[in-house]
Design a protein that fits this description.
By secondary structure, this protein is of the alpha/beta class. Helices cover 32% and strands 17% of the residues.
Length: 289
Amino acid sequence: MTMPTALRVAALAIMFAAALVIGPPAAAQAPPDLRIPGPVQTHGACRADNVTWVMGDGLCLPIRSFAPRHVQRGMVLVVFLHGNVGAPNAPVGDDLSGFAADIVQGSGVQGGVIAVAMTRPGHTGADGRPAEGMFRPQLFADSADGPAVADAVARLKRHYGARRVVMVGFSGGSRLIARMVQNRLGAFDAAVLYACPCEDPANEIAEAVPEGNALYPRRLQLAVITGTLDYGTRGGPAFVRVVGMRGAPATFRPLRNQAHVFDDFAWSTAVKPALLRFIRGLPPAPPGR
């Protein structure tokens, strides 16, 4: 063996040994924020009574429940989901419990309404109570948050014997509902998605479900609302178009001069009227109303 040949053989041997030590290239890693552990335990405070806490796919989630004085079977259950926060231990900034209380007091629906403001997995509620699970603000299609919330909603529906379930989501909460629609999760009948970053669910549904096929296992009604000054929130009209072509009646409403905030104006002007229609079993209002 000549000297150059020997050197080449030695170099190849070194490279092979290094490959054995280093191993094959690592699979693509999820973005860091998907791996941030949320409050993984409730410090013994969890009491899954379906009034202050509810179990969802093995996770204990804090809830705030609002109901009339007399609760009976056959009422309408409304579940509110909050938006994202910057860290798992940061309390949720958009406290939707005030809107939950308002819809119970002012629905005027025969039989009555029960409303629940639910803390999403891995988040800390506005009242400081942590929810079990991982902190997943990105909410990709395979996020475990969808099955957890769907199971929790199903438990609440059984607990109250509700005849109808309507979801209300803001920002990341509405994106989570869009993911539940995409993955055919949750025994709910209608949903109001306010300030929904829905572009990914819309694109993925369009690719996976042919037009004319049923997107959801039963009739589902959707209303999507986005402020005209909410420049960072995209995909609402596309989501409405895609799900509408797959059997889910849906409308999109632009809310004039509204930014990415869930305030009293958004509630009274757009979200509450859409929610009341769904509570009463009516279809989404035509665009422009």
